[in-house]
Fold this protein.
Amino acid sequence: MNQSITLRKPDDWHVHLRDGDMLAMALPATAENFRRAIVMPNLTPAVTTTALALAYRERIQQLLPENSNFEPLMTCFLTDATDPDNIAQGFADGVLAAAKMYPANSTTNSATGVSDVSKIYPVLERMQTIGMPLLIHGEVTDKHVDIFDREKIFIDNILTKLRADLPELRIVLEHITTEDAAQFVSGAGANTAATITPHHLIINRNAMFNGGIRPHMYCLPVAKRERHRLALRQAATSGETCFFLGTDSAPHLRQEKESACGCAGVFSSPVAIELYAQVFEEEQSLEKLEGFASIHGPNFYNRPVNEEIISLVRSPWQPPESFMVSGNDHVCVFGSGLELNWRQEE
Ligand code: DOR
Ligand code: ZN
């Protein structure tokens, strides 16, 4: 039995760092555990332009310790009114690493997202030309569609056409939750990839209703049936280069999750690499962890792999229950009820 694992330092290709006090709480866990992270733009107001992304990057950098080599990779939030010249300039200048498409009202702070993908074809055509990745929250928002079907219907009704119309556009389908998504991405060729979160590898939809309503298990896209969880584990541990690490760590204050209308999102960044290691060990695929966590992502984004090495040691522990934000405000940690086998060496 392995007692330690070493791998190139991972990157997180999908994280919510927030702003203000929440940013100050969330940033250290990401900056310590990951060399780079793709930072989501769904602030209020959203990060819709290159200038806003640059200002947000500066707020992040100001909170980093002097000796940190963490690199925030910024994204901008697409709207029906996005100016192709503005984001192309941001990409050329190295301010923007990608652009994110949220269908309007699909999730937290997305009311000003894209109302219909056909409205932003000029932006997407430009992104295709310059090689700028498009990151997609892949759910339809029609309230008549069952929430557990919204990812599959998005693939069938929107993504399949988009993929065919713009075959060279680099697309990341974010936080996939279904066997359908894993199959689509696996068969869609070299310009299509997907991130997979630790929580979607660990819970199925029962976790939200285990003896009562469990708001800390609620995220979007919502966890699906067990067969989907198993398909995601298969995809993540397959060694296929189209699948890579993206935590979708998304902190909300405890009271905003434990509410009559609780927010979607789980905070996993402090324990994410340990959670992934647990899953890969359970799937007898620890040798595939480095590809998923540290190699496939940079290859897709045309960036160098990290040279720094981390070690995980077998040393069972329980993650902390929560992190303090300010005053009495806390954020609960996903995985805090679990005993984890692997712990990162300081
Ligand atoms: O669970 C989620 N939380 N899913 C998202 O798409 C957004 C995120 C957030 O920002 O809270
Ligand atoms: Zn997200």
About this structure: DSSP finds eleven helices and 13 strands in the chain. The CA atoms of residues 106 and 269 lie 23 Å apart. Residues 14, 16, 40, 248, 250 surround zinc ion (ligand 2) (CB under 6 Å).
